[in-house]
Design a protein that fits this description.
- The complex is a heterodimer of chains A (about 300) and B (about 375).
- In chain A, strands 2-1-3-4 form a four-stranded parallel β-sheet, sandwiched between helices.
- Chain A is built from 13 helices and eight strands.
- Helix content of chain A is about 45%, strand content about 10%.
- Chain B is α+β, with helices and mostly antiparallel strands.
- Chain B is built from 15 helices and seven strands.
- Chain B has a five-stranded mixed β-sheet. A two-stranded antiparallel sheet of chain B has the order 6-7.
- The chains are: A alpha/beta (about 300), B alpha+beta (about 375).
- Chains A and B meet through helix 2, helix 3, helix 4, helix 5 and helix 9 of A and helix 6, helix 9, helix 10, helix 11 and helix 12 of B.
- The complex binds iron/sulfur cluster (2 copies) and FE2/S2 (inorganic) cluster (FES).
Chain lengths: ~300, ~375
Amino acid sequence: MKLAYWPGCVSRGFTPELHGSMALVAERLEIELVTLDRANCCGAGVIAEHNQELADTLNARTFALAQQTGLSMMNICSTCQGAQSECQQRLDADSAYRAHINEALAGEGLEYVKDGGGFENKNFLWVLVEDYGLERLKTKVTRPLAGLRVGPFYGCYVVRPKHRLGYEEHPERDLYLEYVIEALGGEVVDYDGSRKCCGFPVITMNRETSLRQAGTHLGDALDQGADCLVTPCPLCHLNLDMQQPEAAKIVDRDLGLAVLHLPQLVGLALGYKPKQLGMSLHIASTEWVEERLTGVPA
Amino acid sequence: MAEAQSYTLKVRRFKPEDGRGPYWQEFEVDLDPTLSVLDGLLQAKDREDGSLSVRCSCRAAICGSCGVKINGQSTLACLTQIGEAHEHVNRRDRDGDAKPITVEPMGNMPVVKDLVTDMESTHWEKIRRVTPWLLDDGDPPERERIVPPESMVDITQTIACIQCGACVSACLSMEVDPDFIGPAALAKAYRFVGDPRDVETRERLYDLAQDPHGIYDCTHCFACVDACPKGVAPMDQIMRLRRRAGDDEGIRDRNNGHNHELAFVKIIEKKGTLDESLLLQESYAPGIKGKLIPKPAAIKGLVGSLPTAVRGLRTGKMRSLSKLIPGVHPKLPGDAQGHVKRIHEHAEEHGDELNLYITGEEDVEPEPDEEKLSPPEASEGPKEPE
Ligand code: SF4
Ligand code: SF4
Ligand code: FES
């Protein structure tokens, strides 16, 4: 399996452990990733707020770069998925608009072609379940996450809005984290916040609202007995992990819940050590993970 | 019509007079799968328990009275087919025991009885908060006020609102901040901000931008977009309010909302990918290198985010101090950055075009309903307003 790969900005900035663990996991799963190192930020919805056409053009550029490789594209960020899917829907809906946007790309010799070579852009989570396959994933597991109680945290932009994210064709996309946790041998924890908002988009505008969201979901997961959360979104990770001590102050309770990036959770089951997966870089302690999993030989 | 099938409705009930608090009760109903969850509730009320309370009137998604949560999703009971609700909740275990369809009262509102909520404090009061009527220039014209039809296209979407409160029920900001003005009221605000006959546009925008519970208190979570039965897309209207307030009216709100947006756009233009340190700094205190504008909120924000940054350093998350220093983030390789900058210039030439509606897939006939909502220009790409 070979894919054009857009790692996103945050996975190479504040959450370098995400980019790093994805590379390790891809290697062991034998997924070849062709990194789009000339591609640009998805705009995270903020550029669209400023100028929709700008956001559409920037993402058309990324798609066009991916299409040059002749491969479909994978991202590792719910926010990238949401922002890019929005632009792609807009570009695909209207040939005149597409031509207008392509004019801006022509200077670089690029063109976005609707459905070009069956082009798709999918989050690692979707790739894992729909293209790689859970059965195949199970064969790669060398250290089942037995007894590990994992709460899924999707991130808004892979669950809403449904009409834009392929739910007609794939109605179970909002259950995939559960499927993956189970395939890796872990135990799914149901809690209230799994498909809610982490609060990150307003962290600089309304800190109280933002951190109360993060703190509430972390608290709910703890109350349901979670050992950790897993998320396919690095921005969720920022609010849930990096800001966790601040969130704890806002909701006025002890938190201390590890939050794993999706490739890290997969990596643990493939036998990597937490340290190799960059888990020592997290704010909420992950030191217990190694010990919890040593019962099962890697 | 298809054959009637049996379904289980698991209803969250609450009778204030019996003192036992909320509880779940299951009802078996027999219905054609294309009939609605509301039809199911009414059958249960008719056949099993006349005290089961639900608000409804039109049964055709017009009156806006039957807002509930079905399988956790805020929506209208009369618009949701019972067969689809059943399929949705059972989309995973198709062979196992069928799960019941859950029906709950709307969220973010006090429950009066069973599925009936009190919409006064969380909906109507907020609607009144945004002055939901036209403020004209005072002198009544001799005949009606004439506006070009194109100018109304932009607000058509918001006019479709039936005040059902489904978006309020779903709103994830309101869940943690009950003072948030909320999706329905802000969509209503855009209805008048976008109306060319209204003369208080700037005042309206200033008020909503400065309010800490206004347009910058929305976390962009799309919950209201998925909930709304009439395609109002309240979040999109909130983003338009932000654009009108910040970009068109130049309102520098005290929530740093507009600064955040400008900083983001500037960084991508200069670097192509996001430099989070620079974003933090520029959002709170734009132009720190040139002329610092020391707004109290900016300084508070910067200091507030310091503990987080320092913790990041300690765990090694930000591998070196340089991660904290704005501007060290690398640019895109080779000439790629130049191309991104050129794209910016190209797109920014079209400063204030109409919002681009999505009318659906190409070559697919739009639903008659959507046809009415979409602007005539939509199929021809972006256009400058005349
Ligand atoms: S997008 Fe904004 S208004 Fe809509 S539900 Fe989310 S927080 Fe509320
Ligand atoms: S915006 Fe939509 S969901 Fe909200 S009150 Fe109006 S019709 Fe109902
Ligand atoms: S009964 Fe009128 S909208 Fe449902």
